């Protein structure tokens, strides 16, 4: 039997970000503050536009990203299961 690890999609809405940095405080190796005082994803595979960033990641990284999303005071970070589209936060 082959175990297939679940995949997730994170979407960061940079327009909603107010730059508190709580996401960085919960998962410092995943985030950094940009010159505009808004957060950005560190992962180079993230797809970035001026207003949004998306990243596909696996279950081994889920808890760190969930912690960051739950800590965000303006709900700028959304996470969903890739296969089902079910929103986790």
β-strand percent reads: 25-35%
- CATH architecture identity: 2-Layer Sandwich
Rg from Cα:
13 Å
The count of β-strands is 6
Report how far the terminal alpha carbons are from each other.
Answer: 31 Å
Stretches with pLDDT under 50, minimum 5 residues: none
The overall pLDDT, averaged over residues, is 94
CATH class: Alpha Beta
The SSE order reads EHEEEEHE
What would your notes on this structure say?
This protein has 89 residues and is α+β, with helices and mostly antiparallel strands. It has a single domain (7-79), classed as Alpha-Beta Plaits, CATH 3.30.70. 17% of the residues lie in helices and 30% in strands. The chain has helices at 22-26, 62-71; strands at 7-13, 31-33, 39-41, 47-48, 52-58, 77-81. The chain has a four-stranded antiparallel beta sheet with strand order 4-5-1-6, covered by helices on one side. It has a two-stranded antiparallel ribbon with strand order 2-3. The mean pLDDT is 94.
